[in-house]
Design a protein that fits this description.
Strand content: 5-15%
Structural class: alpha+beta
Largest sheet: 3 strands, antiparallel
Radius of gyration: 15 Å
Order of helices and strands: EHHEEHHH
Number of strands: 3
Shape: globular
Low-confidence stretches: 1-6, 129-133
Distance between the termini: 39 Å
Strand order of the largest sheet: 1-3-2
Helix content: 40-55%
Mean pLDDT: 83
Length: 133
């Protein structure tokens, strides 16, 4: 990986990028908030994160969308971290999630982006673990 982007060549040719796809559900409003109205930002988010994101509406009372993400494991982790932050109750975490969302919509992820996300997740786990005791 270089510093300018994740440009790993053809990431889709690596079998490990398809093992254990990330699958989760979003409410309809969350999907629109993240991917834009009519999934306007989906393609650029896929391109910038070097992932393939499939959105499938599920017929539930709350109108959930099933989201499946394949791609490099660290990129999947980054996207899940962003969504986790966007759903967090704490304003500061949500603000960080919105920063990440704007970033992935506007430019390719870098190694530094991936490392920063991991630090935020680890920090939040430590804080949560401390508060649970």
């Amino acid at each position: 990986m270089d510093t300018c982007s994740l440009s790993m060549g053809a990431w889709w040719t690596e079998p490990e990028n398809f093992s254990a796809p990330l699958v989760f559900y979003l409410e309809e409003e969350q999907e629109e908030e993240i991917f834009g109205q009519e999934d306007r930002y989906l393609c650029c988010m896929e391109e910038h994160s070097h992932t393939l994101i499939q959105l499938e509406p599920w017929f539930t009372v709350t109108g959930h969308t099933r989201v499946t993400v394949v791609g490099p494991p660290r990129a999947r982790q980054w996207l899940m971290g962003m969504i986790w932050l966007l759903e967090h109750k704490d304003f500061h975490y949500r603000a960080r999630g919105y920063q990440m969302l704007q970033s992935v919509r506007s430019q390719p992820l870098t190694k530094e982006d991936l490392a920063a996300c991991l630090r935020v997740q680890l920090d939040s786990l430590v804080v949560k673990g401390y508060q649970d005791k």
